[in-house]
């Protein structure tokens, strides 16, 4: 027997929460890199294009966070709609995490 609709939605929500957290972590790392590359670019240690590319990557990664947040909201709502009061501790924690992410 395959996974239930609830299990699929639960795993999907877990996955998008993890992906969003990775985007947030990457933004922090890329911001540090951009600062470093800006200094190197100003000192002519690297080509300006390397710095410019890093800035573009940072911008694009930042744009993914609100998209992932919106998907978290949608998936949490979908999951709540099929739970019908049948909550487990793990489900409650996951939905709580989703609510926290959406309120940021």
Automatic annotation (TrEMBL):
What domain of life?
Answer: Eukaryota
- InterPro entries annotated for this entry? TBCA_sf (IPR036126)
Tell me the organism: Pichia kudriavzevii (Yeast)
Q: Can you name this protein?
A: Tubulin-specific chaperone A
Q: Does the keyword ATP-binding apply?
A: no
Coiled coil region boundaries: 20-50
Assigned keywords, A-Z: Coiled coil
Could you give a GO molecular-function term held by this entry? beta-tubulin binding
List GO BP terms, alphabetically.
post-chaperonin tubulin folding pathway; tubulin complex assembly
